[in-house]
């Protein structure tokens, strides 16, 4: 059978795994390292720099270095959460023609999907080089709380990267799948606590008789390691501005150095109680006098800075267990996934809530990619022992009279699925109905994500409440949505595949594919030239 890539496309780091001879292997992607920084940059000569190369030059090329793009993918530029994220990024973004985010690098506008495609292609090429063969089939993971638009955007990125995407799978579900396959045992209920670089997910699953079934899931697409970094960053900036009486907000290079120092300080505080932060010649006063940073940060001070962020994860942890109609005592295993779970306070509070130490039987940075690879092997028929049953993380439905949200498919419904609900006209002699599709958990339509809309026309004239309209929602195993509306009496039907108003147009995707192929050829030619000249 053909090998399938299992790709964990992370906010901070990404990795790729493959099942080889029934054994999951995490492939080296960067000179023997198993994770690739999710960073893309454009050098002065126009070359794309990916991963560690891009991260190393970020300080001197901050405005042309893209990181944390996963927080922007599939989102509207004017979304309040998008705007909050953009305020912390050194590179410039603007609204595209369809309202989506466009990243501006060296006067060229990139779709977020393009930057993610460069990472995916790098992972694809690394795995192909390791096995000395072309591998194009893939399973890619996303946060459980990604909505339909974000999932569609990931599909577009995979296509631009030259991947044959077999399935999108939720990150905590992938982790549980890897745990279920690698840690054989009796029937058990598992809570996956996934706190990564940019997102937080919590899922409750049941593993039994060769089945991994998701019972409940929740998450926050704007809660992760970057938010912890930002607390340290804000503290350092405030200290410098207070001591020196200047504003550093416009000094991109200084902010980037502070950001990198904040991340490394956070990591060090997982193992040490006190960390020295030293950044000489960070900036300069108006008279040219250099500004240096020399300070210390203690773990207890850091934990006070981020206490509310950790509390948010614990609150969601508790609510998800309740949503699964379970108690903590009924959870057999708690699995910690994502680099941020190395934070001692996070580990301690999970243990305190659950009542015992969480499992240490999986690698928090690699287990998601392993689970995706196992899912790929299952889809190809190479691993037949497990069945995976996932759920939809959001309510799905349509807008009704008064701007209210009427749910057709409740959250935590097992997918794939198809459900129907019948509605009636609201006016006499109404000739058409507009179907406005939403995804979210608010009772009012304005509090949810609008996925699309369409019109069912040519209804027969009749008093209100007489003409019946059957609306059906179908969700694929990837979590992608199709909606249909049918006049029950005449059978007249209108159907849409929900792609989201911010999705790329087909001709735009084809152009990007062609450009990336040209870029790949140019990269190969450069490599050949360097060998010949050597």
Described by strand count, sense and barrel closure, the largest sheet is: 6 strands, mixed
> Level of helix content?
25-40%
Count of runs of 4 or more consecutive helical residues: 12
Query: Low-confidence parts, pLDDT < 50 over ≥5 residues?
Result: 527-534
Please state the structural category.
alpha+beta
* Total strand segments: 28
Describe the global form: globular
Description:
By secondary structure, this protein is an alpha+beta fold. It is 32% helix and 31% strand. Strands 1, 2, 3, 4, 11 and 12 form a 6-stranded mixed β-sheet that branches.
Quick structural summary:
This protein has 534 residues and is an alpha+beta fold. The protein contains twelve helices and 28 strands.
Q: What topology does this entry show?
A:
Layout: E1 5-8, E2 13-20, E3 23-26, E4 36-37, E5 39-42, E6 48-50, H1 52-56, E7 65-67, H2 80-86, E8 92-95, E9 101-105, E10 108-111, H3 112-131, E11 137-142, H4 148-160, E12 164-170, H5 171-182, E13 188-195, E14 200-208, E15 211-220, H6 225-244, H7 252-268, E16 274-284, E17 290-298, H8 299-305, H9 307-323, E18 333-337, H10 344-354, H11 367-379, E19 387-391, E20 396-400, E21 404-409, E22 414-415, E23 417-424, E24 433-439, E25 449-456, E26 468-475, E27 481-487, E28 493-497, H12 506-533
Helix pairs in contact: 3-4, 5-11, 6-7
């Amino acid at each position: 059978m053909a090998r399938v890539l299992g790709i964990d496309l992370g906010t901070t780091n990404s990795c790729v795994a493959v099942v080889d001879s029934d054994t999951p292997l995490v492939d080296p992607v960067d000179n023997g390292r198993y994770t690739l920084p999710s960073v893309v940059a454009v050098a002065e000569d126009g070359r794309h720099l990916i991963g560690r190369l891009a991260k190393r030059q970020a300080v001197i090329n901050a405005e042309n270095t893209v990181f944390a793009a996963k927080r922007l993918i599939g989102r509207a530029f004017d979304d309040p959460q998008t705007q909050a994220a953009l305020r912390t990024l050194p590179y410039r973004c603007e609204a595209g023609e369809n309202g989506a985010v466009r990243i501006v690098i060296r006067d060229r506008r990139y779709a977020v999907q393009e930057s993610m495609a460069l990472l995916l292609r790098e992972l694809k090429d690394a795995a192909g080089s390791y096995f000395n063969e072309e591998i194009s089939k893939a399973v890619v993971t996303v946060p459980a709380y990604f909505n339909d638009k974000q999932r569609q955007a990931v599909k577009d990125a995979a296509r631009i990267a030259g991947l044959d995407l077999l399935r999108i799978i939720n990150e905590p579900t992938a982790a549980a799948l890897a745990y279920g396959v690698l840690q054989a045992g009796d029937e058990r209920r598992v809570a996956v606590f996934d706190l990564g670089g940019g997102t937080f997910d919590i899922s409750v699953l049941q593993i039994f008789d060769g089945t991994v079934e998701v019972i409940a899931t929740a998450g926050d697409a704007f809660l992760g390691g970057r938010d912890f970094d930002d607390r340290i960053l804000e503290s350092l900036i405030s200290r410098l501005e207070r001591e020196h009486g200047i504003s550093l907000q416009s000094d991109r290079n200084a902010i980037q150095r502070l950001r990198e120092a904040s991340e490394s300080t956070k990591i060090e505080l997982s193992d040490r109680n006190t960390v020295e932060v030293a950044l000489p010649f960070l900036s300069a006063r108006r008279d040219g006098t250099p500004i240096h940073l020399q300070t210390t940060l203690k773990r207890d001070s850091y934990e006070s800075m981020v206490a509310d962020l950790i509390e948010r994860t614990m609150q969601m942890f508790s609510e998800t267990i309740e949503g699964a109609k379970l108690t903590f005592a009924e959870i057999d295993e708690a699995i910690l996934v994502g680099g941020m779970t190395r934070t001692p306070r996070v580990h301690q509070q999970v243990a305190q809530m659950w009542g015992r130490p969480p499992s240490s039987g999986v690698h928090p940075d690699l287990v998601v990619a392993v689970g995706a690879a196992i899912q790929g092997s299952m889809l190809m028929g190479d691993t037949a022992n497990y069945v995976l049953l996932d759920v939809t993380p959001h309510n799905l439905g349509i807008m009704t009279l008064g701007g209210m949200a009427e749910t057709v498919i409740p959250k935590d419904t097992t997918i794939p699925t198809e459900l129907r609900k019948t509605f009636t006209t609201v006016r006499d002699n109404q000739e058409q109905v507009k179907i406005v599709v939403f995804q979210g958990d608010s009772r009012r339509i304005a509090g949810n994500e609008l996925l699309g809309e369409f019109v069912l026309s040519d209804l027969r004239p009749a008093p209100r409440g007489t003409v019946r309209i059957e609306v059906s929602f179908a969700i694929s195993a990837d979590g992608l949505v199709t909606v249909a509306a049918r006049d029950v009496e005449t059978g007249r039907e209108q159907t849409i595949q929900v792609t989201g108003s911010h999705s790329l147009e087909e001709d735009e995707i084809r152009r990007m594919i062609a450009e990336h192929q040209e870029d790949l050829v140019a990269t190969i030619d450069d490599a050949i030239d360097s060998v010949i000249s050597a």
